[in-house]
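FORM 7B: Structural annotation worksheet

SECTION A. Query
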Amino acid sequence: MHGSAKMKVPNGKMVEAKLEYGSTIKRVQLLGDFFVYPDSGLNGIEETLEGLGADAEEGEIAKRVSEFTRRNNVTLVGVTPEAIASVVKRAMSDGMESNKA
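SECTION B. Predicted structure
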């Protein structure tokens, strides 16, 4: 399945998630006008979400992003781990709705 979702982070920037998934997340692409330092950190966040169960809760997704940023000294500007988790879950909901039609 494929899904995508966008949201504006309160007091922050726009974030979008595009996903390919089945029982697990196969591919994640995060887009928006937020910043990740160093730049390679964005790829690392996307990779850390791949393989996660499609039934993962927002809290689990946010925790995985937060742990990755802490372990790798990655700084998020204009977006939070919780916002990334929320948009990822919305993208999965979008994909499920699209497949019902």
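SECTION C. Observations
The chain has a mean pLDDT of 91. The chain has one domain: 2-100.

SECTION D. Sign-off
Analyst initials: ____
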